[in-house]
Specification:
This protein is α/β, with parallel strands linked by helices. About 40% of the residues lie in helices and about 15% in strands. The protein contains 15 helices and 10 strands.
Length: about 425
């Protein structure tokens, strides 16, 4: 496999902190898996001392499978996982907690509703119903934890500062009485554990001497602080991300983790992967022209050897998303998906808002001839949807299969699709 100069430099980076700025289509997954292999087979690092972290279970599983294919089934005991799964494992070792101690999103909602019923709330939040208030307050509770805020510094959008503080403390107290952890506790409790018990931290520092993190632009403060503690004192921390893709500030992501990386980690190496293997020149030139106007970013300019390609087409629609998507929009989406699949066989995803619009696309697209999209499965908590896309290529029926993360905020998040044989 021929690597470009930036990819080769990233994979062969020695010890110490390194940040790889990897825009879409620059081969970031390749970098993470190849570097993991390089550390083991070329640098002599014990595989059980390597930790690879990404954001979703699906991404972690895909990363692990790709690494296993790369290493020809040698079964190296590298740890792949999400922040939550890794931190949960640490808490499990320290406190002996199990699945029965974890609260589902529904259980968290029920408990917070009980807390609200027991609290004297004089505010009149502008929400549609009680369920929306509970959902939004749970999100704010998560923001406090993920951002490591003091309650006196956090201002709720829905309650007064005193009301929110009372609700927060009561919710946390009742969880403690029930010996339960919610989703965000896996992060903040791991942070607290490492601060209170340095001997436990030292044990995990010895275990994971090389840490690789994907999608670094999306991490929040508590994730950053735990990783910073875990990487010490060697700081063999290898992070891959793109500040221009940081869109999850509303979920606690902090772009300063990338912008201040060199300041926080002295002697850190920064490598830019600017060659794009996915898009044509016209697309990249348009992207560069837009994104360079942003403030607070690492300067980079994407380029490709694929040529200029077709000119970009702009389509505007009058219909808002609030009531779903119009027939015109639907036809454009479906036909576009069919053309891309037939021409290029590239990964397909959708970003539709709100949730009913995404489901509308799934239902109506099955009537189209170019592409057939079928929902194969849906997780119990409705956070993930299994989808199969059937289409014709070179006169033969082909299949794509993917797991679509279904975001908490009603957004159908783009996911990669892979061809499967039937």
């Amino acid at each position: 496999m021929k690597l470009n100069r930036g990819q080769d430099e990233a994979i062969k980076h020695g010890n110490g902190p390194c940040m790889v700025l990897a825009p879409p289509g620059s081969g970031k997954t390749l970098i993470v898996t190849e570097r993991t292999r390089y550390l083991i087979e070329e640098s002599g690092v014990r595989p059980d001392q390597i930790l690879v972290i990404t954001f979703t279970r699906y991404a972690a599983r895909e990363m692990k499978e790709r690494f296993e294919r790369l290493t020809a089934g040698k079964n190296y005991p590298v740890t792949f996982g999400t922040f939550h799964s890794i931190f949960y494992g640490i808490l499990k070792c320290a406190y002996g907690i199990g699945a029965n101690n974890l609260m589902s999103e529904k259980e968290s909602s029920v408990l917070l509703q009980e807390v609200l019923d027991q609290t004297n709330i004089e505010s009149t939040p502008e929400v549609e119903d009680e369920e929306e208030l509970v959902r939004e307050l749970l999100r704010e509770v998560g923001m406090v934890k993920n951002g490591l805020y003091h309650l006196k510094d956090f201002h709720s959008k829905y309650l007064t500062q005193d009301e929110f503080a009372e609700v927060f403390r009561s919710y946390e107290h009742q969880k403690k009485e029930l010996k339960k952890f919610d989703f965000d506790d896996m992060l903040v409790q791991c942070y607290a554990l490492f601060r209170k018990k340095p001997e436990i931290l030292q044990g995990w520092q010895k275990r994971f001497q090389y840490i690789l993190i994907d999608e670094f632009q999306d991490i929040n403060r508590v994730q950053y602080e735990v990783i910073r503690m875990l990487a010490a004192p060697r700081y063999n921390l290898f992070v891959v991300g793109d500040d221009d893709q940081s869109i999850y500030k509303f979920r606690g992501a902090n772009i300063q983790n990338i912008l201040s990386f060199e300041e926080k980690f002295k002697d850190a190496k920064v490598i830019k992967l600017e060659q794009n293997y996915r898009s044509t020149g016209n697309i990249l030139n348009a992207a560069n022209a837009v994104i360079r106007n942003n403030h607070g970013r690492k300067d980079k300019s994407l380029w490709t050897e694929k040529g200029d390609g077709e000119k970009i087409q702009l389509h505007e629609f009058d219909t808002a998303y609030a009531q779903g998507i119009s027939d015109t929009q639907m036809d454009y989406c479906i036909n576009g998906m069919g053309e891309v699949l037939n021409k290029n066989m590239v990964p397909i995803g959708a970003l539709l808002e709100p949730t009913d619009a995404a489901r509308q696309l799934l239902n109506l697209s099955s009537d189209k001839k170019l592409v057939s999209v079928e929902k194969e499965s849906e997780s119990a908590d409705k956070t993930q949807v299994g989808i199969q896309i059937t289409f014709l290529k070179d006169g033969q029926k082909r299949y794509l299969s993917m797991i679509q993360p279904w975001g908490k905020d009603g957004i159908w998040v783009p996911a990669e699709a892979k061809e499967v044989k039937r």
